[in-house]
Amino acid sequence: MEFIAGLEKKRTMRFSELMREEMAGREASVEGMIHSIRDMGEISFVILRSREGLLQTVINGRMAGKELEELCTGQAVRVMGVVTREERAPHGIELHLKAARILSRPEEPLPLAIDKWALPTSLEGNLNRRAIALRNVRERAKFRIQEGICRGFREFLTAQGFTEIHTPKIGARSAEGGANLFRLQYFHKPAVLAQSPQFYKQMMVGVFDRVFETGPVFRAEKHNTKRHLNEYTSLDFEMGYIDSFLDVCRMEAELLRHVMRTLEAEYSEELALLKITLPDTEKIPCVRFDEAKRLVSEKYGRPIRTPYDLEPEEEALIGRYFKEEYDADFVFVTHYPSKKRPFYAMADPKDPSYTLSFDLLLGGLEITTGGQRIHDYQMLLRKLEEKGLEPEGMEDYLDCFKYGMPPHGGLGIGLERLTMKLLGQDNVREACLFPRDMARLRP
Q1: Spatial distance between the Cα atoms of 167 and 280, rounded to a whole number of angstroms
Q2: How far apart are alpha carbons 58 and 49 in whole angstroms?
Q3: From the CA atom positions of the chain, what is the Rg in Å?
Q4: C-alpha closest to that of 229 among 397, 438, 10, 22
Q5: Residues 42-76: pLDDT tens digits?
Q6: Distance separating alpha carbons of residues 135 and 153, to the nearest angstrom
Q7: Closest CA to 282 of 260, 304, 300, 267
Q8: What does the alpha-carbon distance between residue 243 and residue 389 come to, in Å, rounded to a whole number?
Q9: Do the Cβ atoms of 331 and 285 come closer than 8 Å?
Q10: Residue 18 in contact with residue 95, Cβ under 8 Å?
């Protein structure tokens, strides 16, 4: 009988461990996938790939045994050799191989040239062969950056006293309303896929005061644009005992500063590899919705066509305006009209035709929607009536307010959109591991 006591020390080393000063001239074993092979005649360079990046190994042709001669691209291997300083190699070291053990052999050659600096395929080709395309180190680095965003999000909010929650994605009713719902049968009952965790995170403010979640949301929007996905990851938080929706804005501004500091400190290699300059989070201007429309209309001569919402071109012009005038990468656009906000959005007491809500734009693209919520039961019922909505299916949500809720507000950040803007990409699909849109259900 065996008893499992925990992790055992591995006999192989990580690539990063080989870089230590004392490893020069010593033997070491590492594991990885063969990324590429360059045969130079007398010697061959075998590039290994692991989660840490690339490692250059060298085979001296005159000393190569049978195992080394059988190496080919795509194999998983465990190799042993001598660590040698070499400034021209990645990370300034290489491993001069003495032995190799082949752990797996590919059935076919790779369909994509993943060892190229820029992957030589179209976006569609990339997405069709996603699991292979992501073996390219630059493609993979994009999702290390995305990991850093989520890591910073969790770390910051946990430190601020938020509790992480996990809410259901199948429900009886949508929090947002509208027609863009994925409907399904749930054991012979009608159900929908969640457009957001809004109802649940508000309910949990009455339990934990401050909550956050990272999870998928579903929008049945018939959009085939570079900025829309039908399934995306939302970074949500909700906080109680606020004095103003500006408390939510301030929390997000500090959150973004922490995320950028996390990326700078822990993901510097990926930032350098992708040549990313992170946006400035030290000064984020706030502008009212109606004022933002007026400013860009006057400066760029664009007539105001839609008084109740921002068109994509207007968002882009607002981003351009605040970059030109204030050198600001982000901008909070506040006080959206009630007509285009959900029933739970708190009305501005000075003018109920506007709400105490906001969007955050980065580089002219909306990445966040948030605001203060109605916490009074009777006010919620009146707002439902004004919007022509029935409370049927929302009884559990409304019950929380019947028994008392603190003033609260929150937001949702589109993870893929934020990643896309940080990466400088122009299509949100490039910032999604396995995107889902109107035409794509695979891989």
Answers
A1: 33
A2: 14
A3: 26
A4: 438
A5: 888 999 999 999 999 999 876 566 667 788 899 99
A6: 26
A7: 260
A8: 28
A9: yes
A10: yes
Question: What does the pLDDT look like over 399-433, one tens digit per residue?
Answer: 999 999 999 999 999 999 999 999 999 999 999 99
- Average pLDDT over all residues of the chain: 93
3-state secondary structure 370-423: EEEECCCHHHHHHHHHHCCCCCCCCHHHHHHHHCCCCCEEEEEEEHHHHHHHHH
Q: Which two tokens stand for residue 45?
A: 């360079």
Q: Can you spell out the DSSP letters for 243-308?
A: SSHHHHHHHHHHHHHHHHHHHHHH-HHHHHHTT--PPP-S---EEEHHHHHHHHHHHH------TT
pLDDT at 322 over 80: yes
**In the predicted model, is pLDDT for residue 175 greater than 70?**
no
Place of tokens 């409370």: 391
**Reported pTM:** 0.93
From its phi and psi, is residue 63 left (phi > 0), alpha (psi between -120 and 50) or beta? alpha
CA distances to 29, 72, 91, 246, 396 from 14, rounded to whole Å, are 9, 21, 13, 46, 51
pLDDT > 90 in the chain, percent: 80
Phi, psi of 95 (to 5 degrees): -115, 120
Task: Quote the DSSP letter at residue 437.
Answer: B
Angle at 184 between CA 181 and CA 186, to 5 degrees: 135
DSSP string, 173-217: S-SS-SS---EEEETTEEEEE-S-SHHHHHHHHHHHSEEEEEEEE
Tokens of 163: 């509790």
CB 270 within 8 A of CB 144: yes
- For residue 315 the two structure tokens come to 């968002």
Question: Of how many residues is the chain composed?
Answer: 443
